[in-house]
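Design review, sub-item: ligand-bound model
Attendees: FS, YL, KQ
YL presented the inputs for the nicotinamide-adenine-dinucleotide complex:
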Amino acid sequence: MKRLEGKVALITGAGQGIGRVTALVFAREGARLGLLDKNEANVKAVAEEVKALGGEASAVGCDVSRKSDVTAAINDARSRFGALHILVNNAGVTLTRPFIESSEADIDFLVGVNLKGTIFASQAAIPHIIASGGGAIVHDASNAGLVGRPWQPVYGATKAGIISLTKAMALAHARDNVRVNCICPGSIDTPMLRSALASSGQFEENWKKTGMVIPMGRIGTPEDIAYATLFLASDEARYITGIALPVDGGRTAGVAEVSHLGMALPK
Ligand SMILES: NC(=O)c1ccc[n+]([C@@H]2O[C@H](COP(=O)([O-])OP(=O)(O)OC[C@H]3O[C@@H](n4cnc5c(N)ncnc54)[C@H](O)[C@@H]3O)[C@@H](O)[C@H]2O)c1
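KQ shared the predicted structure:
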């Protein structure tokens, strides 16, 4: 038995990175998929990849920061598939800016996609999930929502907001049989991370340093996140709601004294 057999799942930001790989993992586990992304060409290509695996997927270009856009896309997916059980709120954007230089436009952009987008998609999906007999919502927050990052203050605040939202939504919908959890990824090899590490023009150096401060000694893969998301979305996690799960190679477990003391972690 596949782990998502008979389930209909919606994934936002499915055009690349973590969202794309989550779509492929969910398809292999038997889910029928509604894929949403602002980049319509990319998300259509991912739907074709799903079909090549023998899966079923629709692809819709949609901006999650626009309530009317995301609501229409989610209503369409429910009509097409006849049910909705799982929502993965993965669409997100990042910006690296010193705190006092973060402009009003920067703040609107980050809050609009990360926080408002997560709220709008959830508001649209929950009535459909309840009508389908219950299910699960998984948000992609970040470990930047668990600890402070001086170079991404507003991004971190939007992700901390998602963690708070996870708990409130979990409590509000526990009796509706809708579980709500979030993942807090660490540094994951996606176009988002690669462009952030390349922004100072020293990609190789930044890549190496990023790996060094991760206790497990490597940058994560999108699969690392997709499998944690699969677990939380599946019935195997049936008694888990309201959690923020770090998936970060130990990055937020404590301070790994690698760089400033020149010490290696114990083998
Ligand atoms: N990669 C990391 O290191 C990392 C770490 C922590 C958290 N995350 C979070 O994981 C999620 C996925 O990140 P990723 O690394 O795969 O990013 P990515 O930039 O590689 O992919 C994000 C996808 O979201 C889509 N998107 C952006 N804005 C959108 C909008 N307004 N409406 C619809 N789609 C939109 C993009 O088109 C893109 O396809 C994000 O929420 C991100 O904040 C990533």
